Amino acid sequence: MNVRQRGAARRYARALLDVAVEQGRVEEVRRELRQSAQLLALHPELSTALSQPAVSIDRKRALAREVFDRLGAGELLTRLVDLLMTRGRLDLLADIEQAVTAAWNAQRGVLMADAVTADDLTVAQQERLSAALAAASGSGIELKTAGDPRVLGGVRVTMGGRIYDGTVRGRLQALRRHL
Description:
By secondary structure, the chain is of the alpha+beta class. The protein has helices spanning about 5-25, 25-40, 45-50, 55-70, 75-85, 95-110, 125-135, 170-179; strands at about 110-115, 140-145, 155-160, 160-165. Helix 7 links the parallel strand 1 (about 110-115) and strand 2. The chain starts with a helix and ends with a helix. The model has no long low-confidence stretch (mean pLDDT about 90).
């Protein structure tokens, strides 16, 4: 994504977030936005159909309305998708989702943390990790977790632009470099 696209995504995100805050629907809009971005990423044929210049805007709107109604998207997200389709900017949806999350977290003083472990963490483990990261950083934490068997064990956390690697794989690589 180039600088121009990043700026456009941030402007859309700021406007969307302002309206969502005003309506008291921030978490709902974030969830819908995340689901919509995932849907378009998983179904590139849908994204292509909604972006095709050869397809009339009325047909695109009908298709988008049907798809996003089935997804359970609210009026705010549906209007955003319609605006992006009309302007030929539907490709910005995933970037807008990231920008909304970043802006909302900045507004609340919350850091985003991504944790990767060998196995998926239980809810209790996620809560303990989130509490430990909050205590270490002095900020609230929004934690995303993922399982990756390649890490072998331990946890790798990316937070605030830094990577904290406490994985077995990371330690083995460090030992290999040292030797």
